[in-house]
Task: inverse folding
C-alpha cells in the first residue's frame, strides 16, 4: 500500500470495507479498471465455512455480471445448475413449477447457480492476490469514517494498532452491523420478523424420499412452512421456530424430528451444520454520504426467501464501481443517481418481493392460500406470464410486473 506509513496515514484511491461477496466483487471490478484499492477486512469471510448457511443462490443477472469479471467459469466449476424451482404445499404437493429455460432468449444463463458464497470470495481473493494495485489489510476493522470535501478519512484498528486511511472514495460493504454506516449516523429502519429461522444443512439426498422435488423448493404451510434448497455439498432446510425455542430446537433429537416431518428418513439425517437467526427487513436512510457509498447488507437486509440479498448486493457493487468511475470522469450526477437508483431497487423490489414470498409461504387464511396457489398456477401455465415473472425474480428486470 502506498502512502506515508511513518505518520500513521496511508493513501489509496478507494477503500473497500468488507470482503464478503459484495466487497470482493467491488474490489475486483475496481482493480480490473486500474483503480488503486485498499481492502479492510477481519478475514472471517475469506476463511468462511462452506457448510455454514450463508447465501448460495446466484441468479442469471448476477451470473452475467460475474461473467464480465471473468469469474463465472470458475464459479460454475464448483457450483450446481438449478434450472427449475417449485412452489409446493405441505398437503397439496407441487403447486407450480418454473423452468428458467423460458429465459433462454434473455440471458446466457437461463438458470440459477447454487454455490456457497465462500467460493466466490475465494475465487476473487485468488485473482487479486497478484494485483499490484490491491492491498489487503487482514484482521482489521473500521473504527470511524469522516467524509470531508473531496476525500474520506477512515480510522481502522488492526494488528499494528490504530491507523488512518486517506482515500478519494470509501465503499462500505461491511455487513448488517456496518461500522461505516453507524459512524456516519445513517439510520437503518425497518422491521424484524416475529419468529426465528432455523437452517439445517444435511449430507443426505432429499430426493431419495422426495423424488419429485426440484433443486429449489418453497413449501407453504400455515403452521410449518419451509424451504428445501440444494447446494453442491448439502441439502439445506429452512423453517421457522418460536422466539424462545432456539435452545430446544437446536437439540439433535428435535432437529431430527423436524426433518422427519418434512421428509422421513430411516436412521435419521447426517447433519453438517445448524444455525438459528433473527430475520429483518431494513434499509439505510441513504446509501451515500459525501464520497462514501453503502452497498450490500450495509445498505439493506431482507429475508432470504427468493435469494435476493447477496444478488442485489453484488448489483450494488457493480453500480458503485460504475458510479466512482463516472464521478472521477466529471459526471456530477452519478453519486446522487447511485443513491436514488439502488435505494429504489432495495425498497421497491427486494423488500417487496421477499416479504411477499414470506406471506405466500406462511399464509394462515384459507382464502389467501387458495388465491396465492391459483395465482402461481396461472403464471406457471402461461408462457409469457412465466417469462415476465422469471425476469423479475431473476433480477433481469426489477421493474417487470410480478
Result:
Amino acid at each position: 500500500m502506498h502512502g506515508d506509513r511513518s505518520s500513521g496515514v496511508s493513501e489509496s484511491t478507494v477503500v473497500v470495507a468488507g470482503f464478503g461477496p459484495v466487497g470482493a466483487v467491488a474490489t475486483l471490478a475496481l482493480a480490473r479498471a486500474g483503480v488503486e484499492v485498499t481492502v479492510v477486512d477481519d478475514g472471517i469471510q475469506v476463511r468462511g465455512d462452506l457448510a455454514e448457511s450463508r447465501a448460495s443462490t446466484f441468479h442469471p443477472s448476477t451470473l452475467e455480471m460475474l461473467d464480465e469479471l471473468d469469474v463465472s467459469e470458475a464459479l460454475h466449476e464448483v457450483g450446481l445448475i438449478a434450472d427449475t424451482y417449485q412452489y409446493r404445499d405441505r398437503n397439496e404437493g407441487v403447486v407450480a413449477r418454473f423452468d428458467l429455460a423460458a429465459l433462454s432468449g434473455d440471458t446466457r444463463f437461463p438458470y440459477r447457480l447454487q454455490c456457497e458464497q465462500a467460493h466466490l470470495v475465494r475465487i476473487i481473493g485468488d485473482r487479486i492476490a497478484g494485483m499490484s494495485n490491491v492491498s489487503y489489510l487482514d484482521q482489521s476493522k473500521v473504527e470511524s469514517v469522516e467524509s470531508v470535501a473531496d476525500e474520506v478519512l477512515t480510522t481502522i484498528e488492526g494488528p499494528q494498532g490504530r491507523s488512518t486511511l486517506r482515500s478519494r472514495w470509501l465503499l462500505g460493504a461491511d455487513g448488517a452491523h456496518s461500522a461505516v454506516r453507524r459512524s456516519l449516523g445513517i439510520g437503518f429502519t425497518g422491521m424484524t420478523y416475529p419468529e426465528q429461522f432455523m437452517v439445517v444443512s444435511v449430507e443426505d439426498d432429499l430426493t431419495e424420499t422426495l423424488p419429485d422435488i426440484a433443486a429449489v423448493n418453497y413449501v407453504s404451510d400455515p403452521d410449518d412452512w419451509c424451504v428445501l434448497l440444494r447446494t453442491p455439498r448439502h441439502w439445506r432446510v429452512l423453517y421457522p421456530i418460536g422466539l424462545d425455542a432456539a435452545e430446544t430446537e437446536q437439540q439433535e433429537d428435535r432437529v431430527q424430528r423436524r426433518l422427519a416431518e418434512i421428509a422421513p428418513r430411516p436412521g435419521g439425517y447426517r447433519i453438517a451444520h445448524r444455525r438459528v437467526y433473527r430475520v429483518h427487513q431494513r434499509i439505510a436512510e441513504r446509501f451515500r454520504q459525501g464520497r462514501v457509498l453503502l452497498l450490500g447488507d450495509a445498505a439493506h437486509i431482507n429475508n432470504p426467501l427468493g435469494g435476493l440479498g447477496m444478488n442485489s448486493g453484488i448489483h450494488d457493487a457493480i453500480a458503485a464501481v460504475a458510479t466512482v468511475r463516472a464521478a472521477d470522469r466529471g459526471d456530477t450526477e452519478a453519486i446522487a443517481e447511485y443513491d436514488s437508483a439502488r435505494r429504489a431497487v432495495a425498497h421497491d423490489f427486494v423488500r417487496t418481493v421477499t416479504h411477499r414470498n414470506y406471506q405466500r409461504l406462511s399464509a394462515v387464511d384459507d382464502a389467501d392460500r387458495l388465491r396465492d396457489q391459483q395465482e402461481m398456477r396461472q403464471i406457471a401455465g402461461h408462457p409469457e406470464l412465466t417469462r415476465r415473472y422469471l425476469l423479475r425474480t431473476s433480477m433481469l428486470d426489477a421493474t417487470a410486473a410480478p
Remarks:
- The CA atoms of residues 257 and 268 lie 9 Å apart.
- The chain has two domains: 3-79+115-187+285-362, 190-280.
- Residues 1-9 have pLDDT under 50 and may be disordered.
- DSSP finds eleven helices and 20 strands in the chain.
